[in-house]
């Protein structure tokens, strides 16, 4: 049973990575859906009739760069949990993968306000001078991601110590 849950997490990470990649490709060819999603999710007072397709493609690219941090973090989380499912618990590879997961998670948390600021600038660049928007948002979601990244960083250090203890115990037996 203990190996079932790590395998489930590893498989879930794989599914999310594949779905996000396919979704990004789909949105590249359906730019009007990008506009609809931006209108409903960003909550910016943009004059949407002035937004052009190149701006929407720019928004798609900025969002893709932001999401690539999360996809990369899931890749490393998947690797660590796939090893956990195989019974490889206290290895330096798992420690490295969890540390890289925490680094990319931390980077994504810091990149969210930058992404939001770039999106607001990009979508309002057709507005007259004085009506352009620069919006920066930092909330509890970003703080929670930073806390989670720190927790995984500490766990990766614990795995290194556990790996050292496991090697030491093997030498005594």
Q: What does the model show?
A:
This protein is 79% helix and 0% strand. By secondary structure, it is an all-alpha fold. The chain has one domain. Helix 3 packs antiparallel against helix 4 and helix 4 (92-123) runs antiparallel to helix 5. The longest helix is centred in the middle third of the chain and has 33 residues, at 53-85. It is elongated, with a radius of gyration of 21 Å. The two termini are 28 Å apart.
What is the succession of H and E elements?
HHHHH
The chain-level mean pLDDT equals: 87
Question: Spans of 5+ residues with little confidence (pLDDT < 50)?
Answer: none
Determine the fraction of residues in helical runs and give it as a percent range: over 70%
Number of strands: 0
Integer-rounded radius of gyration: 21 Å
Counted by DSSP, the helix tally is 5
Strand percentage lies at: under 5%
Please summarize the sheet with the most strands. Answer: none
**N- to C-terminal distance:** 28 Å
Q: How many domains comprise the coordinates?
A: 1
Structural class: mainly alpha
Coarse shape? elongated
